[in-house]
Input
Amino acid sequence: MAGKRKNNPAGSTNSYRGDVLRVLGALKVATADQIQRIGAPHLSFRHADKEPASKRKQARTASHTGALSDMRKHGLSENGGSTETGDSLRNLTLKGLQAASYGGAKVHDFRLWSRIYPATGREGYVPLAFVFTGKTEAQRASRMRRLEEAARRYFAGEPYSGRASGITAVDYHQAVPVVVTELERITADAEGAAGKVWRRLGREEDEWQTLAEALDNPDGDRLYAVQWKEARRRQEEREAAAREAKRPVCTRCGTKFTDERWQSIRQSSWRSEGDELCGPCLDEHHERVRAEKAARRLAEEAAVREAAEAEKKNRGLFRRRS
Ligand SMILES: [Zn+2]
Output
């Protein structure tokens, strides 16, 4: 820890220095205040109760100010003038820009809009709206079609990958929803832009919807959840049917084994007598074996007794004769 502290005397963490790299990598110039708002907006809420405003700002920007100070020491960032309100403007040095592009994937992945705009509540990126106007209706339609063709790879979702059959839902998480309308259509509609004047690119050409309908993804995550559940149910049914097909049948009475009986013959690792019988037939079988054994024992005992009697009689006769 001491070593780390020595490297970064302001005590900044990787995460805050990463914010600075990402934000300055994207914006080129920003104040600590802007870096915090974009890089770690949650800090604004954490310090929302501090009074006065200057103290609030100091508290929420402290971590990034520290990160900037440590990065200046490492020659990654520098101060470049100040705003009208007296905030220092920061930018990356050449070394800092290299560090930012070294984490190129990260910079690319840094979605500015998701830090600035509230969540849309829908999967995918922030939507784009295009309002066409002028020329003839046919020309406007043709321009909308051209946009649709050109932008397809951005607005079209993808099939959910590696899925069970029967899933038609579309994964819109990496898609930019694009809606189009015409000024002429909006002005002609009694409800204006609130009317059914929007078309979501990728949908039917004559499917005009309200903005909320056009932006909604009824064939996205919601449908996926339903279809996935359904696919899982079918899978379970298939497994149950396959299992049922393997269920043994009693060789004596033809009854299917109960789960319990089936389990009991599977548990023993060796085959034993009666494995082909259902529970009641097996009980009956054991009962008969027991009864036969008992009868045999009785017969044997009777035979022994008779032999003893005969022996006694013979001895008596012999004595009398002698
Ligand atoms: Zn049976």
